[in-house]
């Protein structure tokens, strides 16, 4: 299998009250094309910190990171944004939809950074909303939707640029167990169709639906 994400001895320190605290203490992790990985660990263990690094939203203090063969840490901020946009779709616990925008407008939003034909984009957005069973609500705004429905829209948004990787931080954390399972069904389908899925969760049942479980504890992978 082809390596998609390779982290070598990744460390991350934060300054809190002018004291340096090491949160990630040397993470080594390889994720392959087509993987479905759950990252688990106690609250405060550094899961979101790691996700921000994998998602090219933050840089480590030291270490090496290769994404699809590119040396991520050698890129400048613009190049990093470009790479992120091309490769990664994000899903968050609190959905992060734009409140004043309709479902379809939320799905289309990530394409404003890429030069794509708007007619095609709209067509694709509708196809994606169909895929997550939200085609009947394309003109609804987030406050008119349930949590599970909002997360479906957020997943469609994460897919609009056709990224190879879906990175989801506690995607079911705000949902009941039935809805959580429906959302995990969507991730399973996407994985069966070739997407690489990385989810962060503290729920055992949710982690159990991934193909691999990686546990982070005390800043390292155990
Ligand atoms: N920007 C920051 N500045 C200072 N400390 C930070 C910063 N970001 C995270 N931390 C600290 O790093 C530690 C790990 O945080 P992180 O958000 O990665 O944990 P987590 O595993 O995602 O936890 P949870 O399950 O609660 O979401 C915490 O102690 C947190 O306070
Ligand atoms: Mg977190």
Keyphrases for this structure?
alpha/beta; Rossmann fold; four-stranded antiparallel sheet; 7 helices; binds adenosine-5'-triphosphate; binds magnesium ion
Describe this structure in words.
There is one protein chain. The chain has helices spanning 47-54, 77-87, 103-108, 118-131, 147-159, 177-192, 204-207, and strands at 3-16, 19-32, 36-40, 62-67, 70-71, 88-92, 165-169, 196-200, 212-217, 220-221. By secondary structure, the protein is an alpha/beta fold. It has one domain: 3-Layer(aba) Sandwich (Rossmann fold), CATH 3.40.50.300. The protein has a six-stranded mixed β-sheet, sandwiched between helices. Strands 2-1-4-5 form a four-stranded antiparallel β-sheet, with helices on one face. The chain is globular, with a radius of gyration of 17 Å. The mean pLDDT is 96. It binds adenosine-5'-triphosphate and magnesium ion. Magnesium ion binds next to α1.
List the helices and strands and how they pair.
Elements: E1 3-16, E2 19-32, E3 36-40, H1 47-54, E4 62-67, E5 70-71, H2 77-87, E6 88-92, H3 103-108, H4 118-131, H5 147-159, E7 165-169, H6 177-192, E8 196-200, H7 204-207, E9 212-217, E10 220-221
Parallel strand pairs: 3-8, 3-9, 6-7, 7-8
Antiparallel strand pairs: 1-2, 1-4, 4-5, 9-10
Helix pairs in contact: 4-5
Gist of the model:
This protein has helices at residues 47-54, 77-87, 103-108, 118-131, 147-159, 177-192, 204-207; strands at 3-16, 19-32, 36-40, 62-67, 70-71, 88-92, 165-169, 196-200, 212-217, 220-221.
